[in-house]
């Protein structure tokens, strides 16, 4: 007979192993999956492609000979990114498409039809997103709506358009893939003026996982990746510069890009960093009430203190 203690340890350790094994496997797997061969990929589309994880994905795709379509709001930043990529991949093919994903979903769909209807795109990286540390009651709703459009609606609109395109145009055993960039913030209610961002990422993760179950029937692989701290401009743009200074565990975006390609077709969801694994396990074992209570003791005004210091 198993003792109570052994059963308890089993119930604790099994979820931990299930959570961390894929993370370490994908992180330390030496050879990057050749997605060009796996998906017969001529073109791949990457949103939020000008910096950070999006730029790293473009770099990795280009190294496999895939033609990359770079999508972001700023044409100037996209051209800078394209120039950097061409310096590294002189024979690469990079197409710049400045598109504002903060628009209404129907507008995004119409733009996709107009811009990409004739491209043979096999892979889509839903990566665009941003956070602004607003107090919900203080922000102009038009700005909040734009952020929600980019962080939530655009993910669904892009997926909707490509699913319909692939269902009607792909033949035989041809496969396609959609990758969603989520965040460990989706697991924890921090109160750090991230209520819109964290809830948006919760939607992205659940949407990707739910969408992924049915999409496999059509030969479409879906994966969402909950990123941990990444060395990028995200924290600076969000106003959390004081947090950025203390994030010694922040990782290079190329690690995230590598894990994305290695995980496609193998998993539905990846907790990409050890800190995200911990957040998910804490969320799982403590529950929402305990997490909200603990969050009350977090340094809510950390970024604002930094702003005040600058003013002084």
Automatic annotation (TrEMBL):
Provide this UniProt record's keywords sorted from A to Z: Oxidoreductase
Reading the lineage from the top rank, the first entry is Eukaryota
Q: Which InterPro entries match?
A: NAD(P)-bd_dom_sf, SDR_fam
Record flagged with keyword Translocase: no
- Endpoints of the signal sequence: none
Which family does the record assign? Belongs to the short-chain dehydrogenases/reductases (SDR) family.
Q: What name does the UniProt record give this protein?
A: Oxidoreductase
């Amino acid at each position: 007979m198993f003792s109570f203690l052994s059963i308890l340890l089993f119930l604790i350790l099994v979820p931990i192993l299930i959570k961390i094994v894929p993370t370490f496997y994908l992180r330390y797997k030496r050879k990057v999956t050749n997605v060009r061969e796996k998906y017969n990929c001529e073109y791949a589309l990457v949103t939020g492609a000008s910096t950070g994880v999006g730029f790293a994905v473009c770099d990795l795709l280009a190294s496999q000979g895939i033609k990359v379509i770079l999508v972001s709001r700023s044409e100037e930043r996209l051209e800078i990114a394209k120039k950097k990529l061409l310096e590294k991949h002189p024979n690469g093919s990079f197409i710049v498409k400045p598109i504002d994903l903060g628009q209404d979903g129907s507008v995004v769909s119409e733009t996709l039809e107009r811009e990409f209807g004739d491209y043979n795109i096999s892979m889509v990286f839903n990566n665009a997103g941003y956070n602004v540390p607003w107090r919900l009651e203080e922000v102009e709703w038009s700005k909040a709506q734009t952020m929600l459009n980019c962080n939530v609606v655009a993910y669904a609109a892009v997926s909707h358009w490509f699913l319909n395109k692939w269902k009607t145009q792909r033949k035989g055993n041809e496969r396609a893939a959609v990758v969603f960039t989520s965040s460990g913030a989706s697991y924890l209610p921090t109160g750090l003026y991230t209520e819109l961002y964290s809830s948006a990422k919760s939607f992205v993760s659940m949407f990707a996982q739910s969408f992924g179950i049915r999409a496999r029937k059509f030969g479409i692989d879906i994966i969402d990746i909950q990123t941990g701290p990444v060395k990028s401009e995200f924290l600076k743009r969000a106003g959390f510069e004081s947090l950025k200074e203390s994030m010694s565990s922040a990782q290079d975006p190329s690690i995230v890009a590598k894990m994305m390609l290695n995980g496609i077709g193998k998993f539905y969801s990846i907790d990409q960093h050890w800190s995200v694994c911990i957040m998910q396990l804490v969320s799982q074992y403590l529950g929402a009430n305990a997490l909200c209570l603990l969050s009350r003791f977090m340094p809510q005004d950390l970024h604002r203190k930094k702003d005040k210091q600058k003013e002084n």
